[in-house]
Amino acid sequence: MRFYDRFMSVPKVFPSDYIDFLIASPKTYSGAEAARVQPAATDPPAHDAFTRLLTRLEPDPGTLWTEAEPQVRRTDGVLVVDDSTLDKPYARAIELVTRHWSGKHRAVVQGINLVSLLWTDGDRHIPCDYRIYDTADGRTKNDHFGDMIRAAYARGLKPRCVVFDGWYGSLDNLTLIRNCGWTWLTRLKSNRLVNKDRQGTRALKDTALAATGTQVWLPGFGLVTVFGIATPDGGTVYWATNDRSMTDLTRLQLAQFSWAIEHYHRGIKQCTGVERCQCRKARAQRNHIGLALRAFLRFEAHCFARGVRWVEAKTAIIRDAVRSYLARPHITFPIARTA
Fold first, then answer.
1. Total structural domains in the chain?
2. Which domain of life is it from (predicted)?
3. Which of 41, 115, 200, 281 is the most buried (most CB within 10 A)?
4. N- to C-terminal Cα separation, the chain
């Protein structure tokens, strides 16, 4: 042993300890709470040991892929890309917190924007990659989209389709996916310009489009198939794909896959405390989010193997604690003293 090795401090907590805490904790996800619930030991970790863990790790989405890879079938499934706002309504000094649109609140709120790449076959929800939007690094959400698509291609994924929201429907993104040799499906805004039957360029809302699909020319890209789907409120939703032979039934099936990422975002918020980190530094926030996603991977593998829901698996942990308390309750009325 080298002389200075004897004086180097050994960490008391590791990523697996923090992940286990995120899985088990029902509500509070602070370092102080993590220290309070540690099993009895001669030298239990203090709360600052968990804070140091979040600041010493190097934030790396690649670690998530290392654990997700065995659960993914590379030549099957659908990749879904979308972003979600992690609520931070009371944040005043937390880095990475900016104003974002929230689908949950239907308003612009304070939070951290998480861009996710999810692999799904309809039954599994496997997060493969993620990016955190930060105005300081100059990267847009579309830049993050491209980074994750290129990473997925380099990892050998060959999905049936890549499905994403119209926010990511730029020509650069559509071309990138086509260059990967993949099929894409996305929604387009009603004012997106197309050219049908060489009749001139006009907005989708002014073009006659069948619900079963109509081939049109998308300027800057080429021929695509657009489905004009009537909505109950009298409007029209436009889905587009570069697979010109896609049927409406296939489009419907793939569009339903896109909802998997909504369930996923709800799951990580309900079961892993991904929104609840109170650390101020960006590095700690990034590491907390990454560890929360790795905690979700464990939930997903456990629930798929046992046929239960994520919330049920979380509740089962709490139920065991309640059962232990009921066997020996200690919160009672004080014993009255006799004169």
1. 1
2. Bacteria
3. 115
4. 68
